[in-house]
UniProtKB/TrEMBL annotation:
InterPro entries in UniProt: 6-hairpin_glycosidase_sf (IPR008928), 6hp_glycosidase-like_sf (IPR012341), GH15-like (IPR011613), Trehalase-like_N (IPR045582)
Keywords tagged on the record: Hydrolase
Trehalase-like N-terminal domain: residues covered: 8-169
GH15-like domain segment(s): 237-603
MF annotations from Gene Ontology: trehalase activity
The protein's name in its UniProt record: Glycoside hydrolase family 15 protein
One of the protein's GO biological processes: trehalose catabolic process
Originating species: Glycomyces albidus
Length: 615
């Protein structure tokens, strides 16, 4: 047995920082326990989230303390206030954005020139107190212990593929485990810290002065706030959570390409100790139509177009001899081969820690519908599809027509035997329905007849083989009795009329059978995914239930389900992937884009259901 204790700080204790190139997680006690550089999917340089020896940077009172925190306005600059018996101090943290730039469309492009720097400003606001400082970078997921040398104005840490320049105004002690000191502060005193990251081949950058650090922080606050203010205000339910969800999607959007990572972390488990630990730092085609709808509803049309264009460019072309890849690296990479990091203890001992994701090799038929549905939703905002894009979208419509009768792994990437999932068939229907409606834009009028014929065959199959009269619902797969929360997407798809009683019955069956003791919705019934252990309840699925209830004419019940799912957010409005049914704590990678997307789309459905004339 590994003698090292597993890290186990609750996931909800963390706050997100982002410079749209990478992300950091900061705990309530002032410790940055997760940071990958230079990209979201790069090896972690601070990784205590997954192992106590994998690196962190902490600034916290030496004496017992209480802490409160909040983002500064509509930004990802975090202010944490520590209170002890002798005084209070405020710590402000951010990943520096650099100067904002514009686009041809006049939009604000955040972090185009991000300096890859973490800035921290510490101020004593009352009384006096001592604070402990510890800077312990560990590149390559904790494998590398850097060498520290002093330089004018700070410290240089070198080891592995990275160099870190710590701008530090106080003397430090150096040991085998990093740079530490104890700082005594009195009211009115302020200290500025920063860490700049560079590759080993790059010359080390000079430390920043306090004025430069303050300017970088001010620029970051102004950049986020200006981006937020450039978008229309939300007039529906839960305005604060909706606003924060839009900001989260922008924070998880990789600046150079427009890709959105599903989450900025890897291997935070879906069930503690059960091996359900996956790397989510990639962009899923599955998320395309949901993401586009959410961004468009928030007025982020340019951002939605960039995400859609990333997906089509990363895929490049449809190859009839193999399925469309379901996910890509944030730079467009195709090979996401999975491996295990055996030297890491895992969050609360949840091994293995994985990097890469073997799901990239799985066939999932739903991706055809999600891409073509995204193109349909953006038809008024795309400047026009060039010939390669038209050929690509027409090709995946052909793929849906050719492959819809095959079994697959489903949206939840089951590692069990392939099945004829109803959701996969539904999204093939969506693919062909949107292709038929877009045939003129795709220069594919000659193929529209075949697409329409296959679309009608899929609908007939879903109605005859997917509907289970014993259960009174469209079930998870043809001929089966188990339920799948993904089928809650059916009311929004348009495959059946809004008032079809089978839609209402399906939503009600899922409402009855997939809710846990807390009222949250599980993805599916236990034992149907081919994996050990039982995962938590899925936040996105509870928002899906709220959306489906709204779309089937039950806005009050929808609002109740929405409020329950929204209550899963932490004090900063951030949502994880899942919730531990037993204790109500967060599980899974964090923060989870899918959960925030679900919140946005459910809020839109509830707003529109209460204003029928707008539907």
């Amino acid at each position: 047995m590994d003698p090292r204790p597993a890290n186990g700080r609750p996931i909800e204790d963390y706050a997100l920082l982002s410079d749209r190139h990478s992300a950091a997680l900061v705990s309530t006690d002032g410790s940055i326990d997760w940071l990958c550089r230079p990209r979201f999917d790069s090896p972690a340089v601070l990784g205590r989230l997954l192992d106590p020896d994998a690196g962190h940077w902490s600034i916290r009172p030496a004496a017992p303390f209480r802490s409160t925190r909040a983002y500064i306005g509509d930004t990802f600059a975090l202010r944490t206030e520590f209170t002890t018996d002798t005084g209070t101090a405020a710590l402000t943290d951010a990943l520096a954005l650099g100067p904002a730039t514009g686009t041809d469309a006049g939009r604000i492009r955040l972090a185009a020139r991000a300096p890859l720097a973490t800035v921290r400003v510490l101020e004593c606001t009352a009384g006096e107190l001592d604070l402990d400082f510890a800077f312990r970078p560990r590149p390559e997921y904790g494998l590398v212990n850097p060498i520290f040398t002093t330089v004018p104005g700070g410290v240089l840490a070198t080891g592995g593929p990275a160099r870190f320049v710590l701008s530090c105004p106080v003397p430090l002690d150096f040991g085998d485990d990093g740079a530490t000191t104890r700082i005594a502060l009195r009211a009115g005193q302020r200290l500025h810290f920063a860490v700049q990251t560079a590759g080993l081949a790059q010359p080390p950058r000079p430390p920043w002065t306090p004025d430069e650090i303050q300017a970088a922080l001010d620029e970051t606050v102004r950049g986020w706030q200006d981006w937020n203010d450039a978008h229309p205000p939300w007039t529906g339910p839960a305005p604060d959570l909706v606003k924060r969800s839009v900001l989260v999607l922008e924070a998880l959007r990789f600046q150079p390409t427009g890709a959105i990572v599903a989450a900025p972390t890897t291997s935070l488990p879906e069930a503690v100790g059960a091996g359900r630990n996956w790397d989510y730092r990639y962009a899923w085609v599955r998320d395309a139509s949901f993401t586009v709808q959410a961004l468009a509803a928030a007025g982020c049309h340019g951002e939605a177009v960039e995400f859609f264009e990333f997906m089509t460019r990363a895929a490049a072309r449809y190859q009839p001899q193999k399925p469309l890849q379901i996910m890509f690296g944030i730079g467009g990479e195709h090979d996401l081969s999975e491996r295990e990091l055996g030297h890491l203890a895992g969050w609360r001992g949840s091994r293995p820690v994985r990097v890469g994701n073997a799901a990239w090799l799985q066939p999932q038929l739903d991706v055809y519908g999600e891409l073509l549905d995204a193109a349909w939703h953006l038809r008024g905002h795309l400047r026009g599809l060039d010939e390669p894009a038209r050929r690509f979208l027409s090709g995946i419509a052909d793929a849906a027509a050719d492959q819809w009768e095959q079994p697959d792994q489903g949206i939840w990437e089951s590692r069990g035997a392939p099945r004829h999932y109803v959701y996969s068939k539904l999204m093939c229907w969506v693919a062909l329905d949107r292709a038929v409606k877009s045939a003129h834009r795709l220069d594919a009028a000659d193929r529209a007849g075949r697409w329409a014929a296959e679309r009608d065959r899929i609908r007939e199959a879903i109605e005859t083989e997917g509907w289970n009269p014993r259960v009174g619902a469209f079930c998870a797969a043809f001929g089966d009795d188990d339920l799948d929360a993904a089928v809650l997407a059916m009311p929004a798809s348009g495959i059946l009329p809004d008032g079809d009683p089978r839609l209402v019955s399906t939503v009600d069956a899922i409402d009855r059978r997939l809710r846990d003791e807390r009222g949250l919705v599980r993805r599916y019934e236990a034992g149907s995914d081919g994996l050990e252990g039982v995962e938590g309840s899925f936040v996105m699925c509870t928002f899906w239930l709220a959306q489906a209830l709204a779309l089937t004419g039950r806005p009050d019940r929808a609002a109740d389900a929405f409020a329950l799912a929204a209550s899963c957010a932490n004090d900063l409005g951030l949502l994880s992937e899942e919730i531990d049914t037993a204790i109500g704590a967060m599980l899974g990678n964090f923060p989870q884009a899918f959960s925030h997307i679900g919140l946005l789309n459910a809020a839109v459905a509830i707003r529109d259901a209460r204003r029928p004339a707008t539907r």
